[in-house]
Amino acid sequence: MSTDQADSTTVNPFTTESARRALFALRAFPAGLVSLGAAATGRHGWAGRWQLAAADPSASERIDRRSPSWLRVFAHSLLSLLIGMVAWFFAFLSVIAAFRGLFYGLITDGSYEYSWGGPTLAGAWLVHLVLGVLLVPVAMWILKAIASLLAGLTRRLLGEGGPVWAVPVALVLAAAGALLFRSWLHQA
């Protein structure tokens, strides 16, 4: 992903570029897992070049000039794995919310009298449908933001430069994602 793409602020979720960026964010989990395994088995040079080329295709001419250290590749792989898990968890919750909104009338237990849009089933279903549909562009925008963070993290740890804030933000996002997942598991 080029720097121009990573810094894009367009919000239209229905473009090919938005889908590509969302897939880049979702690709971080398996790519981080593969890179972590490669770094653990002594192939950190390959893992670093592979991750850098995936984040910035124009980096192929710069790859041989600087080979990232094992520690940088390991840290990047671990953070990519954690941020990718957050992206997958967020995508999972977004899909559940969108489908629940779309099919609210079919999955409700009949207690829609006090739900949003109640007291009628039609009103509750309409409100949940609208909220579910509105969630799609918000989810795409958040996945694009995660992709931008991952591109900055890759440039910072594996490339030449990159934003200083990428590593602390990645750590905070990973911790917040773990707390969100834990609270989601323990909800009543």
Question: What would your notes on this structure say?
Answer:
Helices cover 72% and strands 0% of the residues. The chain contains seven helices and no strands. The chain has helices at 3-6, 16-40, 44-55, 70-102, 104-107, 121-157, 166-185. The protein is elongated and about 65 Å long.
Tally of contiguous helical segments: 7
- Series of secondary-structure elements, N-terminal to C-terminal: HHHHHHH
Instruction: Give Rg in angstroms.
Output: 20 Å
Low-confidence segments: 1-7
Assembly annotation? single chain
What descriptors fit this protein?
188 residues, mainly alpha, 72% helix, 0% strand, disordered N terminus
Characterize this entry briefly:
The chain is mainly α.
Write the layout of secondary structure elements.
Blueprint: H1 3-6, H2 16-40, H3 44-55, H4 70-102, H5 104-107, H6 121-157, H7 166-185
Helix pairs in contact: 2-3, 2-4, 2-6, 3-4, 4-6, 4-7, 6-7
